[in-house]
């Protein structure tokens, strides 16, 4: 049971997601990209574009059975550009926006948020971490969650 409790630890899991991303390279925005039917900024870690690239979020699902997402900041919204969260139709939930919830209120100010959030009607234990560029500006958000 101790191993299970540790396995479903959003703080440890987001630390792993963030470290996998930063190992690829420094985060930055460059140009725009189509995600679902939206044109949004393209977020890169190093030379790798994360929009519509699912390697990292899928590796987190494989190692932790966690949901994981990278959002890009588009205006005042955060749009899912890489996710293993599925819609009710069974498609990846890319192009959808972070709800204006407690997590949004923290990350828009550049602060991490960990706590329970409802996603598509189900409660999750989550952590959201702002992704900042070299200048310290919030350009996106990383997320992990465990369905309760």
Main β-sheet, spatial strand arrangement: 5-4-8-7-6
- Report the total helices: 4
What is the N-to-C order of secondary-structure elements (H for helix, E for strand)? HHEEEHEEHEEE
Global shape: globular
Distance between the termini: 16 Å
- Tell me the total number of β-strands: 8
Q: Please state the average pLDDT score.
A: 93
Briefly note the structural class of the backbone.
alpha+beta
Q: What share of the residues lie within helices? A: 25-40%
Strand fraction? 35-45%
Radius of gyration, Cα only, in angstroms?
14 Å
Describe the structure in your own words.
There is one protein chain. Helix 2 packs antiparallel against helix 3. By secondary structure, the protein is an alpha+beta fold. It contains four helices and eight strands, in the order H-H-E-E-E-H-E-E-H-E-E-E. The N terminus is likely disordered. Strand 6 and strand 7 form a beta hairpin. Strands 5-4-8-7-6 form a five-stranded antiparallel beta sheet. The chain has a three-stranded antiparallel beta sheet with strand order 1-2-3.
Question: What can be said about this structure in brief?
Answer:
The protein has four helices and eight strands. It is globular.
What key phrases describe this protein's structure?
single chain, 148 residues, alpha+beta, three-stranded antiparallel sheet, disordered N terminus
């Amino acid at each position: 049971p101790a191993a299970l409790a540790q396995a479903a630890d959003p703080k440890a899991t987001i630390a792993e997601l963030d470290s996998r991303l930063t190992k690829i390279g420094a985060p930055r925005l460059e140009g725009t990209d189509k995600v679902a039917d939206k044109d949004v900024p393209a977020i890169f870690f190093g030379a790798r574009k994360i929009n519509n690239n699912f390697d990292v979020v899928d590796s987190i699902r494989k190692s932790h059975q966690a949901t994981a997402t990278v959002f890009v900041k588009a205006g005042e919204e955060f749009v899912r550009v890489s996710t293993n969260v599925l819609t009710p139709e069974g498609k990846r939930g890319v192009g959808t926006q972070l709800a204006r919830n407690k997590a949004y209120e923290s990350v828009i100010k550049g602060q991490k948020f960990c706590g329970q959030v409802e996603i598509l009607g189900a409660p999750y234990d989550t952590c959201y971490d702002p992704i900042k560029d070299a200048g310290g500006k919030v350009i996106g958000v990383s997320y992990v969650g465990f369905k309760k």
